[in-house]
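Box S2. Input/output pair 1.
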Amino acid sequence: MTGANTRVLVVDDEEIVRESLGGWLEKDGFQVASAPDGRSAVERMKGERWNVMLVDLKMPGMDGLQVLEEARKLQPDAAVILMTAYATVDTAVQAMKLGAFDYLVKPFDPEELSILMQKVVSQQSLVRENAVLRKALKKEHRFRDLVSKSPAMQRVFELAQVAARSNSTILVLGESGSGKEVLARTIHAESPRSEGPFVAVSCAALTESLLESELFGHEKGAFTGAIARRKGKFEAAQGGTLFLDEVGDISPKLQLDLLRVLEERKFQRVGGNEPIEVDVRVVAATNRDLRKAVAEGSFREDLFYRLNVIPVTLPPLRERKEDIPILVDHFLDRLEAELKRRVQVSPEAMAALLAHDWPGNVRELRNVLERGAVVAQGDVIKPSDLGLAPSAARPASANAPGEPPTLEDVERRHIAEVLQHTGGNVSQAARLLAIDRVTLYNKIKKFGLRRDGEEPEPSHG
């Protein structure tokens, strides 16, 4: 930044001071305007942007410190220099605490003013250069809505970019909340089909009959309640991408139906006889081990190979904790637009985030940050604002002394605590855990938990 594009506002109740300061600054090439009191300065701040403000400390009505406080709210990037004939150490300390760039003692000479203004210009240029570098760094670590600097995720980005250009079926593997749908949307956006629709279906959330109708549609009268013909998701995704989430949970019958569509590129609506051709790119996702499911006989081997043309595995957040700071920055940028205010994370809160195991992965991190931004008293999120249970970040071991708990023990304990916290409300617990209700029901059953989070009473025959 140079003087020619630096806008300066001089605020002083003495006209002679405004004129002399304005003259000196204009000679140095600055764009200068003035205000005769604090209130008119604040009004000008509401409608115009200023790089530097020279503000008299002692003014009738609104004094310089009050103008400084308003400037911090309205134009936090502006450098405010306070001017006073009554400078004391206390005044200087108070001004700097409130965010003043510096202060000048009256009377001051033009050379002193010039040196200070050059210091301001240099500092603001550095701030801007840093912002540009940070933006470039963010871009380097970004694949559309996905951000990461971990080597494992960078390999995912590279594979996804190559896969997006093909028409092949993609299988996205990863834990709940790891970003499978975000990756699927990104692949669609990077593909030649980006102008077509992106349609998502959660296969775990519906019964077999409902999912069949959801995927393939139905004819009028096909079943009770089918009062009209309805197109399914395959037809809705024509020319675009169909995302099948939790594909590992579909029934044997639907596995066969899906296999036929992938092989023949046509299907029939429920209750219909007419074959419907479809041009759809399928991206499927699951948090299950499909190879194990094939070995156990619960998932068709031929369908597995049809889906597993290009497998992409998303690593869990606990295995790439170096991504937490840039993910925090990414989510806070988004929350700023939603909440209309900028918040930052305190060093202590960041330490708590880095210590947490993130069973709900990136989705859980986003939810935790949103909670922190909403409940924070000021513009800084503290550890207490995050709502992380101490046992989730540093689980107490129930195993032998000195032996760490298993991951399953940690997960069971954390789910139990959240269920207790919600009073057995499964929907609310699922939101806090950043997983869907079906997944939570499965985990409650797996761990033998009651809805209130307590272990079931032992049976006495």
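Box S3. Input/output pair 2.
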Amino acid sequence: MDFKKFTSQASSPTGGYLALSGYRGQFRGYELTSIKMEDADPIMKWRNEQIACLHQNEPLTSTQQTEFFNERVKTQFSQSKPNLILLRFTSENRLIGYSSLYDFNWQDLRAKAFFLLETERVQDAFQYGTDCSVLINLLMRIAFMTLSLNKISMHSFDNRPFHVNAVEASGMRREGVLREHTKTEGNWVNVVVASCLRSEYLKQYPQ
């Protein structure tokens, strides 16, 4: 896919992140924009259905999710240098997943990245690869061009090779493997660390 053909436009910052200055990223019917409070329930559903691939010990409740959105998410909207950004991922205006930038280090201009797609889309390897490629490239554009970060990194469980392959095929370079770094469903799994630098992004997609 030719990601040089991104489009972006200014939108009302109401309800969105000040740090994104109303940015909207679009590509072939896909969009990555500031999270909405109404996204809490579908995100909770997907997280509970895919709990085995998350750092989450037990299913979330509606009360926990509401508290998280009110206390951790909404409070970051007005921050010029937030420590958490959640982004809604849509296709033809329908929510199909979400992404986050977190663990910001604003001095060194780096953050970690994460994403999760609706459970049904995970079942189709080709669809998953397409969705991941678009999402990650839109996320890179926000991270490097809007937030002016120098580096984003992503941690992936290696018991999901289709996910690791999709991440690395989307421009993230493997840095290494954290051996038996986490436990899921009673088994130790390795965590693959991949990252992208602003210089690498600009080399591939010069502005």
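Caption for Box S3: Residues 125-146 form the longest helix (22 residues). Confidence is low (pLDDT under 50) at residues 7-14.
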